[in-house]
Each structure stands twice: as C-alpha cells, then as structure tokens.
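In response to the reviewer comment on reproducibility (Comment 2.3), we provide here a single inverse folding case reported in full, input and output, so that an independent group could reproduce the run without further information from us. The structure tokens appear first.
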C-alpha cells in the first residue's frame, strides 16, 4: 500500500459532507438568532431607562 486508504463509493462521503454543511448552517442560524435576541433585549432595556428618566423630570 502507498499510505492511501481504500475509498469506497462517493455516496457515503457526500452524505457526510452534506450533514457537516447542514450542521454548520444550523449553528450559524442559531448564533444569528441569539445575537438578534440579545440586541433586541439591550435596546428594550435602553428604551425603558430613557422612558423612566423622562418621567422623573418635571
């Protein structure tokens, strides 16, 4: 042997590649959703503080 592994049909390798790409896509979507959630939460807190400050001023 010359150090190369015997490679079988391309089907299983392609399926593994598609699973890997799909998992990456799902992770990216999840990260983006989490960032959006945090951003909206921070904006909401900021708006609440501004609203409270405006109410305190006569």
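Designed residues, in position order:
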């Amino acid at each position: 042997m010359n150090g190369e592994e015997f490679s079988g049909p391309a089907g299983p390798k392609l399926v593994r590649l598609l699973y890997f790409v799909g998992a990456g896509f799902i992770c990216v979507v999840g990260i983006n959703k989490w960032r959006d959630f945090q951003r909206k939460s921070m904006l909401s807190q900021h708006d609440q503080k501004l609203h409270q400050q405006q109410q305190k001023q006569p």
